[in-house]
Design a protein that fits this description.
It is a single chain. With about 170 residues, this protein is mostly helical. It has helices spanning about 5-30, 30-50, 60-95, 105-115, 120-130, 135-140, 145-165. The protein has seven helices and no strands. The chain is globular and about 55 Å long. The N and C termini lie far apart (about 50 Å).
Length: about 170
């Protein structure tokens, strides 16, 4: 594959799957600066993966797998440096303009998803995007029945949290 073909494929994939990548980014990174970093990291990984894509899965599934794996690694790496960055993040939060989220319920949902552990976060995103249990199991390397059990627990957990916050109306 030439670099020109790789660039063409990358631009096409990015145009078609940008929203999907943003969902993963938003679920794994809360601060705008972190979201930019994670988005960039995922797109770099997608670009590097193009020559090894064997079309054994759909492009959608392939990109999701890359995005989730990159996000999980990114979160792990960020935790290592979290204590060093904590004082800087406090200053940035004071300097940032506070914008009202366009949809309070959606903001609540992303915040609740962000608080889940990495696997549960991934499952929630995949469920919201309509992947089957079998596809989710393949992407995350767990059994289909484990997917079902985890999704049931996640739903119960999110419902319980939403009942605590009746102002969100979920």
């Amino acid at each position: 594959m030439t670099e020109s073909e790789q660039n063409h494929t990358f631009n096409q994939w990015l145009r078609q799957h940008k929203v999907q990548i943003f969902k993963v980014v938003r679920a794994y990174a809360s601060a705008a600066m972190d979201q930019d970093d994670l988005f960039q990291e995922i797109t770099i990984q997608v670009w590097h993966s193009i020559p090894v894509f064997r079309e054994e899965s759909s492009v959608n599934t392939w990109i999701y797998r890359i995005a989730l794996n990159t996000a999980i690694k990114w979160v792990s790496k960020e935790r290592k440096y979290q204590t060093k960055r904590e004082s800087l993040e406090n200053v940035q939060a004071l300097l940032q303009e506070h914008k009202v989220p366009p949809d309070e319920r959606l903001a609540w949902l992303y915040e609740a998803i962000y608080k889940l552990d990495e696997i549960d976060r991934s499952l929630t995103l995949l469920l919201l995007d309509g992947f089957s249990y079998k596809e989710m199991a393949t992407m995350l390397g767990i059994t289909e029945s484990n997917v079902g059990v985890k999704i049931n627990r996640i739903k119960k957990q999110l419902i319980a949290k939403s009942k605590q916050l009746t102002t969100h109306g979920i």
